[in-house]
Design brief:
With 115 residues, chain A is α+β, with helices and mostly antiparallel strands. In chain A, 59% of the residues lie in helices and 12% in strands. The longest helix of chain A has 24 residues. The radius of gyration of chain A is 19 Å and the shape is extended. The structure holds a DNA duplex (30 and 30 nucleotides).
Chain lengths: 115, 115
Amino acid sequence: MSNMKNKEELSEEALEMIASRFRLLSDPMRLRILHTLGDGEMNVTDLVIATRAGQANISKHLGILFNAGIVSRRKEGLNSNYRVADETIFELCEVVCSRLKKQLETRQNALAGVF
Amino acid sequence: MSNMKNKEELSEEALEMIASRFRLLSDPMRLRILHTLGDGEMNVTDLVIATRAGQANISKHLGILFNAGIVSRRKEGLNSNYRVADETIFELCEVVCSRLKKQLETRQNALAGVF
DNA sequence: TATAAATATAACTATGCAGTAATATAGCAA
DNA sequence: TTGCTATATTACTGCATAGTTATATTTATA
């Protein structure tokens, strides 16, 4: 059967797809944009103001996120309004954040009472 | 209160920590290593064989994952045995993978019946 | 039509990092 | 000791990409 799942080995293509997804989230500016968009739809100018970044930079990041299907775009006159289209993003961030907290806590305890 | 959570703005430091975590997972070779280690503890040589990669490359990736606390190391004679220390990794991969599947399915449906 | 505003894109630079080859280090064996 | 094996590290190269500047594109307005 051609559809058999091979649990031992993942194809290079599958690995690349998954890695690319994580790569999208591996940039602080994109995370900042997504977090800002968490409040709801925003246009580019407002995002530029909110993030205190350059317009070209924000547009480029939004284009990347849009192409990946993570945000959606709604054009309205001169404006482009973006919103988060993939809510699993926040789930991923929360898992990472919780884990980081736990990890730091463990390290703190390791030092507790030492000197 | 100095511990007040500011829901509007994330610090650059927090963003960088979270982004770094995702960056660890944004490389196909590291994902392959982690997937291989999913079967249990392995030493470097076996990982080199299983992944068909260079020894220096595997050692470097393992060092990166070890420093991040994602894998643990147990030295035994000449060998270094690694295992996954942070199981949330697999949770993250599963969320990403499910989302990718759904996304591709949606695109397939968009083309269904067209020509 | 001419001008201005909002956004996108192109070209460029600089930085980070994956892969590799060579070497170092550490434990084991003869 | 001498040599062998497993792993780590260093130095290097090439590629991907974040940020920026300048420009193009699109739509609204005077």
